[in-house]
Design goal:
2 copies of one chain form a homodimer.
Chain A (H helix, E strand, L loop, with lengths): L8 H13 L4 H12 L3 H13 L4 E5 L2 E5 L4 H13 L7 H11 L4 H12 L18 H4 L18
Chain A binds a DNA duplex (30 and 30 nucleotides) through helix 1 and helix 3.
DNA sequence: GTTTATAGTTTACAACTGTAAACGATACGC
DNA sequence: GCGTATCGTTTACAGTTGTAAACTATAAAC
């Protein structure tokens, strides 16, 4: 439920195993990550320990070992990460980035139809405000109180 | 042109200033980031130094100061970052994440139309292969050689 | 009951990050 | 010409991350 995630790249690998299996022992996790990344059991245990103290994993004692679970959900986590990234560019440029992603993401017809539907139902606004701090975006060079329409893709920088 | 970016969060703030202005002195950068993040000139100079040694900024001497520019382009950089993030989940789930992003991104009618167009022209495939390492995804629990259609959103986890 | 395997905890350590003070060079003002 | 403002460079230092060995506890095996 926390708004900011503190899961490092390596820790994410551990989370993925727990997300996929619902619950795992350190041994199971180590097995997967030894295969995928060549990590030793020690390494995996360190990562589990860090995730546990950060509160992202819960440990339930089962006989002599712990079984790890998580309350955090994978889709939520990725949404937070992606939103964090998108906050690095001007809001006005995000639609172009999305266009790029739609183009390059392999999908089946159902995906395409679903996205169409989402798009069709999308409420649009008259203007997307530039949310950049002055000096970190060129929007303010053009705008000056008047409404600008499609400024953000005069240079369609996110298309490939 | 490098495939993997090594620009930290704080360094990204510096890059944004250079991207926005085309070229900047350390003073200009420090001014913006002192305003936005409260950073001292020292801090900004350290970041500039690191970006320069990493090769992301170029310094051209102009009279007694340096003017910093970059060859790296902002859209390319963000694409790389986003693609890195997307590689953290199963390919099959990406369209649902995109649906979520389309829903939550504010956009004007032109954006909507452009995305529609991109979608309409999109080449779809018969099946999106699961690219996960075994144990990090549930796809392989279902598949076993046969073609699966819309498995990836049986639980439409990326819609909100 | 003593060895052995297995699980978890502690310690380690280098690289990278965030944040900044201190230091050194150099040009400008007077 | 000499102080002073301004750059850039060096040094600092704590926190996070990647990666793992060493140590400890405890249960299973015989």
């Amino acid at each position: 439920m926390s708004e900011i995630l503190n899961i490092s790249e390596a820790e994410w690998e551990v989370m993925r195993v727990v997300w996929a299996s619902g619950e795992s022992t350190s041994q199971q996790i180590a097995l997967v990550l030894n295969g995928k990344r060549g990590w030793s059991q020690s390494t995996v245990k360190t990562l589990i320990g860090r995730l546990t103290s950060k509160g992202y994993l819960q440990a339930r004692k089962d006989a002599r070992r712990f079984v790890y679970t998580t309350h955090l959900k994978e889709p939520e986590s990725l949404k937070l990460e992606v939103e964090g990234l998108l906050s690095r560019i001007c809001s006005r440029k995000i639609p172009n980035l999305l266009a790029y992603l739609v183009e390059k993401t392999p999908m089946v017809a159902e995906d395409q139809a679903m996205l169409m539907e989402v798009l069709r139902n999308k409420q649009v606004v008259a203007e997307v405000p530039c949310d950049c701090y002055p000096g970190q975006c060129t929007c303010h060079l053009h705008a000056s109180g008047t409404i600008l329409s499609n400024h953000s893709y005069e240079e369609n920088t996110y298309e490939n």
